[in-house]
Structures are given as structure tokens and as C-alpha cells.
Design a protein that fits this description.
alpha/beta; single chain; Rossmann fold; 11 helices; 7-stranded mixed β-sheet; two-stranded antiparallel sheet
Length: 292
């Protein structure tokens, strides 16, 4: 390991470069970039300066940190992240936790997860819910391929701590297609939990977005349409037909529209409707149940 003074000087230099580029959290990002190189090379003295410069340049160009690093942590699993596929974020960990909670007390629960993206929610369920069977879908072929790789990594035990390994025959099936279209119709009325982080922003939000989002996340994963909640509304409308009596729907929503989504759920006959905040205190998820 290089002398601590050298390391801190390196951190200070990277932080300054990121700060000058307008990166929102330059000190945190600098630390994570340096730590990634320490993990890769074992010793910063063995690290080619060009490697670090390349990573810093990418982040300074406002490429998402997770994509620069090629990975991110989501609850208890380590996920591969690639350019062009929606990057999982901390607020969605709350949504995954609500789905895990909804599975408790159910033997071999069946979960549908449309708009899976990287497979983050599905992978969390795989290690946290014994015997779960998840059917995840996505319209984007690149997302389907990535989700399948992440599921395989989690299933092999290389992407989660020993205490969080797949148990009791839990499995995830990732299908290509829009929302619930590719799901076997035999599951209609038999699903315990329908969970999703769908596109839920109005297209008018684009000019105000940070470059990390606007220029890198696929717009199909961000924008539900002019209104924003078109996909949320469609999933709420489908929930009653796919859930078993007493089954639960958990949807991530625009915090500005959470109340609207809750009213929509009640109007569709769902019960025990509630809005759940994320870690920042913003209304982030709508949870409801099919009567029965």
C-alpha cells in the first residue's frame, strides 16, 4: 500500500476533478473509485495511472458511478451494471423490502416482477424469501440478458454473503416481453405478490434531469408517457386478475403522484391501500391487497 499521505493526496485530486465537473457527491465518488482500484490491484502502487484517469474521466463526463464501476450493491446482493440498462437505486430497496414482507407467511410464494431491468428486485427476493418463484419480465433485450446474468451470479453464491444464499428451491425466471404479456396465463389468480419499479415519470421531466439519468438511463425505463403514470395505472388495473385473494401489489411511484395512485387502487377495488416513504422520506411506493 502506498503511504497514507499519497492516498489522501490522490483522493483529494480525484475529488477536485469530480467537483469541478459538477458531480453531485465528488468526495464519495472519489473514495469509491480509489477503493475499487485498491480491490482490483491490491496495491495502488501497482495501479497504472492511466486506469484511474480513465475512470475519473468517465465519471467527470457524468457517466453513472455504478456503470463506471460495473457493479452496485442492492440490499444483500452484488449486481452487475452495464451501460444502457436502468441503474438500480437505493429507493427501490424499500420497494424490494415491501415485497419480501408481503411474502412472509406464504409457502413457496409466486411473485411477478414486470420491468425488472437489472433484475435487482428479483435477486433480492431470491436470497431473502425461501422457496420463492419469481417471474420477471422486461421489454428490453439488454435488460433481460443482464437480469439473467445477475440471477445466475446470485444463484451460484458469488454475488451475496454466505448468510444470504438461495434456499428451499427458490428460483427466478426472466422473460422477454412487455409487462405481463409473456407470463403464463395459468398463473392468473395464483400470484401472491406483484411488484414493480415501472417507468413512472412524465416525459416533461427530461430537461430538468441530472445528466447521469437523462443521458444514460434508457428513457423507456424512466417515462411512463405524457402523464407519467400510464404504466402504473395499467399494472394496478391488472393486479386484481393476477393476484390470488389476499395477494399484494407493490409499485414504486412518482412521489408527486403517490396519492393519485392510491386513489386509483381503491377505485379498482383493492383494499388496505397505503403509501410508503423511501429512505429520504418521499412517498415512493403504493401497496394494496386484493380482497379475500
Amino acid at each position: 500500500m502506498t503511504a497514507p499521505r499519497d492516498r489522501w493526496e490522490l483522493l483529494e485530486d480525484v475529488t477536485t476533478r469530480l467537483e469541478d465537473a459538477g458531480v453531485p457527491t465528488p468526495d464519495v465518488d472519489a473514495r469509491l473509485l480509489v477503493e475499487a482500484l485498491e480491490e482490483r490491484f491490491g496495491d495502488l502502487s501497482r495501479c497504472d495511472v492511466a486506469v484511474l484517469d480513465g475512470l475519473v474521466e468517465r465519471r467527470a463526463a457524468r457517466e453513472p458511478l455504478q456503470v463506471v464501476l460495473g457493479r452496485t450493491t442492492f440490499r444483500w446482493v452484488d449486481l452487475e451494471v452495464v451501460a444502457g440498462v436502468f441503474v438500480p437505486r437505493p429507493e427501490t430497496e424499500v420497494v424490494a423490502g415491501l415485497a419480501v414482507e408481503a411474502c412472509r407467511g406464504r409457502r413457496q410464494p409466486v411473485v411477478l416482477e414486470p420491468c425488472t431491468g437489472s433484475g435487482a428486485i428479483a435477486c433480492a427476493l431470491l436470497v431473502e424469501v425461501p422457496g420463492v418463484h419469481v417471474v420477471a419480465t422486461d421489454l428490453d433485450e439488454a435488460a433481460v440478458a443482464l437480469a439473467r446474468r445477475n440471477v445466475a451470479r446470485v444463484g451460484s453464491g458469488v454475488a451475496s454473503p454466505a448468510a444470504w444464499r438461495v434456499r428451499d428451491g427458490a428460483d427466478v425466471e426472466v422473460l422477454h416481453g412487455a409487462l405481463l404479456e409473456p407470463v403464463n396465463p395459468a398463473l392468473r389468480g395464483r400470484v401472491d405478490v406483484l411488484v414493480s419499479n415501472p417507468p413512472y415519470l412524465p416525459s416533461a421531466d427530461l430537461p430538468d434531469m441530472q445528466p447521469e439519468v437523462a443521458a444514460h438511463d434508457p428513457h423507456a425505463a424512466l417515462f411512463g408517457g405524457p402523464d407519467g403514470h400510464e404504466v402504473v395505472d395499467a399494472l394496478l388495473a391488472s393486479a386484481g386478475a393476477w393476484l390470488r385473494p389476499g395477494g399484494t401489489v407493490v409499485l414504486e411511484v412518482d412521489d408527486r403522484r403517490a396519492h393519485d395512485a392510491a386513489v386509483r387502487a381503491e377505485g379498482l377495488g383493492l383494499v388496505d391501500v397505503r403509501v410508503v416513504p423511501d429512505l429520504a422520506g418521499r412517498d415512493r411506493a403504493v401497496v394494496a391487497r386484493r380482497p379475500g
